[in-house]
Amino acid sequence: IDPRNNMPVAASQSMAPGQRRKISTERQRSTIPKSGVSSAEASTWTYPSPQMFYNSLVRKGKATDCTEDDMESVVSVHNAMNEDTWRRVVAWERLHVHECRDPMLLRFLGRPDDLSPLAWARYLTGGGKPFDRHDWYVDRCGQQVRYVIDYYFHEDKAGTPGQFDLVVRPAADSVGAVADRVKMAIY
């Protein structure tokens, strides 16, 4: 398991057991800069292929609501949401441009079963639960900074640009991160 993304190091591009037809094995490059890589490795993260994504869903027991035919669209949405997440992280990181001009994503961790304190409060006050949560660890020129991302789906807006809501913010695990939250709320 690769500790940078909790995925198998050699993720399978083979068909999953019970799979009815082949799915694309083509992978797309992200624009998200990758920290901690050697000069021989890619400088940006690479997204999973539709086949890899499907295999991951099967491995996690979450492939019951989708078919092979859905994977191209699912992966396209997945990739777009990650690009949007990175844009939002970079917006926060602009508060530290004097310290670090080029933040990079060091690693990330999916935590779909863990509600963040903000997601919990939102749920208690009548909001829905996020369908996923990630913790992204950003390399701010040698300083590791954790971001919490809650991903929401709005059924009533399905098929529209507003169907997904991403709540991105630095984890409140340092005085500096809390100060950043206050600054962004004011500005």
Automatic annotation (TrEMBL):
EC id: 4.4.1.17
> For this UniProt entry, what's an example GO CC term?
mitochondrial inner membrane
Reactions mediated catalytically: holo-[cytochrome c] = apo-[cytochrome c] + heme b
Q: Enumerate the subcellular locations listed in this protein's record, separating them with semicolons.
A: Mitochondrion inner membrane
Which Pfam family is one of those matched by this entry?
Cyto_heme_lyase
Which InterPro entries does its entry note? Holocyt_c/c1_synthase
Stretches of Polar residues bias are at: 30-42
Using the UniProt annotation, give all residue ranges assigned to the region (Disordered): 1-42
Keywords for this protein: Heme, Iron, Lyase, Membrane, Metal-binding, Mitochondrion, Mitochondrion inner membrane
Among the GO molecular function terms of this UniProt record, one is: holocytochrome-c synthase activity
Q: What class of enzyme is it?
A: lyase
Coarse class of the primary localization is: mitochondrion
As for what it does, the entry says: Lyase that catalyzes the covalent linking of the heme group to the cytochrome C apoprotein to produce the mature functional cytochrome.
The record, for PANTHER family, names: CYTOCHROME C1 HEME LYASE, PROTEIN HRI1
Protein family per UniProt = Belongs to the cytochrome c-type heme lyase family.
- Name of the molecule in the record: Holocytochrome c-type synthase
